[in-house]
Amino acid sequence: MPATRPVIETDPDRTRVRVHALREYFDANVFEPSENLFRCSRYLQGSNGLGCKCSAKAAAPNGDFYRGQLHHVGDHFDTFVDDKPLRIVVLGMSYGTSHEYHTLEKRTEMIRDNGQYCRARGASDDFPARNPHMSGTTYALRCVYGLDLDQLAQETENIPTGDGLSVHLFETFSLMNFLLCSATLNGSMRDNSTPQMRANCVAHLRRALEILQPTLIISQGFKSAIQEGLVLGDAEFFPEGGDHVSVKKLLLRNESAILVLGPHPSRGDKLGYGKSPKNAFLRDVLRPAIERAVQMSFDL
Question: Quick one: 229 exposed, middle or buried, by C-beta within 10 A (0-12, 13-18, 19+)?
Fold first, then answer.
């Protein structure tokens, strides 16, 4: 972000058009929520004859499988910084929870509540702490908007807009997952998805990205799945010391986005940046990569 405070505007009407298009696509191709009618043809019969649930059960007969888990799209997803579009997607692998037939509206309500009633780790507010995943997501969004990683009070998560109002960070991005179903083990949230699940679901991911038209995507792990499933340009930028982060151009239909390939914030090692805002990887590697990516996205 530039040194002077940028002028931030949003277009919620345009966002509503995108959400409507997403809902129509998912109703027709994934599940119809009013009847809990699961329509995804890849659930039982995938592209090579092996469906998602069958492949997950073959890999882990005692594992858990939960279907129909859609994305969060904030009401102010269509954001502009000094008149330049900034549409942010944070991309994970799967929910890892037991929710089924979880609509766009339910997911957005969940993320909105997390923003309003929880605090990032390291903040002193009298709220329950977000888990490392959502704390790491908060830190990443703060990096996008040039916000301090030392002063984390919840009130600083509200971004002033040019019309004198403010919007919460979580309203300005979409939290998406590569998969619309979760395969887990022993009641944990740890992803246990199969290559077949990823191959089957990538078409849904591509279509969602085409509808949302992000300019900036921050991935949380699973680099190989992204590289196999999406069309990437050559490496554009490697931050100093950034063996675990790269910035690339993602090619979509008639569009492109800047992609930050990074680790998951919940990792158990030093790359797990969601546990503390003082994490060295977050400050020294990921933040400059995100800042560079934002500037690159403005030049698309």
Answer: middle
Contact 265, 271 (CB under 8 A): no
Residue 20 three-state SS:
helix
Helices (H) and strands (E) in the chain, counts: 8, 16
Summarised one tens digit per residue, pLDDT across range 62-106 is 899 999 999 999 999 999 999 999 999 999 999 999 999 999 999
Tell me the pTM: 0.93
Give residue limits of the domains in the chain: 8-298
Instruction: Tell me whether residue 65 is exposed, middle or buried, using C-beta atoms within 10 angstroms of its C-beta: 0 to 12, 13 to 18, 19 or more.
Output: buried
Q: What is the CA radius of gyration of the chain?
A: 18
Residue 66 identity: Y
| Residue 190, CA distances (Å) to 106, 117, 141, 263 in order | 22, 25, 23, 15
